[in-house]
Amino acid sequence: MTTQIQSEKSLRVALAGLGTIGGATLRLLQEKSDSFEQHCGRPIKIVAVAAKGRTRARAFDLTGIDFEDDALKLAFREDVDVVCELIGGGSGIAHTLCEESLRQGKSVVTANKALLAVHGMTLAALAEKHGGQLMFEAAVGGGIPIIKTIRESLMGNAVTSVQGILNGTCNYILTRMRDDKGGFDVALKEAQRLGYAEADPSADVDGHDSAHKLCILAALAFGCEPDFSAVSIEGLRQLTSVDFDCARDLGYSIKMLGTASFHEAGLAQRVCPCLVSHASPLASVDDVLNAIQLEGDAVGSLVLVGAGAGGKATASAVVGDLVDLARGHKVNPWGCPVSDLKKAKILPEKERRGRWYIRLHVTDQAGVLADIAAILRDEAISIESLLQQGRGPKTSVPVIIVTHETNEATLHAALAKIAKLDSVWEEPFCLRIDTNKD
Ligand SMILES: NC(=O)c1ccc[n+]([C@@H]2O[C@H](COP(=O)([O-])OP(=O)(O)OC[C@H]3O[C@@H](n4cnc5c(N)ncnc54)[C@H](OP(=O)(O)O)[C@@H]3O)[C@@H](O)[C@H]2O)c1
Q: Which of 20, 236, 275, 328 is least buried, going by the fewest C-beta atoms within 10 A?
């Protein structure tokens, strides 16, 4: 009888995926089970799990927990209240499992940003329709509680901008490139050796992972649909040691930033390496740490820094969602009903203003700099500083230009003209100088 009452009171959880995050979540739930029961007023109980390899050796105890070979079966189990999707991937089994679990009236907790960035609206609509909850604190910033902060704690604010270092792999590579001066390939190899980067690092270093996270944050901050296709994305493969040396001399760090800002003319969302002033709190966030900076009209500037990935930190966020569910906390996944979310207008290129750092490789001869300056003058781009690095007759030398504020369309027009000069050896490379407002 006692057991019966206990099992009716428990929040009954199924874990799909027992890898880095699934395994750490299971361990955390087991280690702190007494504390959860005390704080939620009822136990959180893992009743079933699913993974790809049933016979794979696992560093945790699955005694008394059912193992499903087909993860989709978790969606149909009558003894499950919440399915925790910790498999990953923007489509396939993760997608099917989340949809079907919500259709069955269960709640879903997921850390899957790739899935939410593209299917977040349909999943939220299913949750609304069938009465489940969709929770995803672990999808952005790992252990940093940014989803709840924006969706719930900052309700008294109009958020005007949200930006952050959203990918620990990129941040680690940039830190190594700055400190060791070894170049992108060397830094990437070190990140792979330490397990910070995948064998195929493209989702991280080409900016897609950060873009998934950014569009989730933008949707919550500005009350619009998550729109991954509207994020402009640049990776960090083109950065060289010249950029790090010049950025330092100019008073900047180089950080891979995701930035979303709301303007009358539309929403700007971009992920790209940027020059960040040494005075910014983001400039000193190094290695694998993540950081998110928000501007709210009531609270002012807010910065959250912490472990953006890793088993324990991310499991902390997954478990936070489970505790909310155990307590009976209910909230619209995107902060308001799906029908109230509108597709945001994209800010046109000519409205996207900023200052830029431009790196050129040019022939070291008289008149070259004058030609470049003339093009910038004709496009009404004013130069804040122009620096030629070293001397090298008959070879190319780097020239660094810092512009005053202009718009992106004008900048691109000028760079296209500069690229055509005979004295310019390779495609001009530019980095946005972050101002935390454009
Ligand atoms: N790793 C991080 O630091 C981190 C941080 C934040 C968010 N996330 C997100 O968390 C999720 C999980 O990431 P992870 O790093 O834990 O991945 P992972 O270590 O690769 O684990 C994936 C798990 O999914 C299982 N799996 C794969 N295909 C399956 C299938 N068809 N059916 C059932 N199970 C299947 C695997 O089973 P086997 O164990 O049998 O191979 C494994 O247990 C992803 O959405 C990721 O983006 C990860």
A: 328
13: its two tokens: 């959880």
- What CA–CA distance (Å, rounded) separates 418 from 426? 10
Mutation pick for ligand 1 pocket among 49, 52, 95, 209 (CB with most ligand atoms within 8 Å):
52
Q: Amino acid identity, residue 364?
A: D
CA of 156 to the centre of ligand 1 (A): 36
Q: Is 296 exposed, middle or buried (0-12, 13-18, 19+ CB in 10 A)?
A: buried
Q: What digits encode the pLDDT tens for the residues 181-206? A: 889 999 999 999 999 999 999 999 99
Looking at the fold, whether 271 and 230 belong to one and the same domain comes out as yes
Q: Are residues 9 and 119 both part of a single domain? A: yes
155 shares its domain with 290: yes
Tally of CA atoms within 13 A in the half-sphere of 243 that contains its CB: 29
Q: How far is the CA of 51 from the centre of ligand 1 (A)?
A: 9
Task: Indicate whether 194 and 123 sit together in one domain.
Answer: no
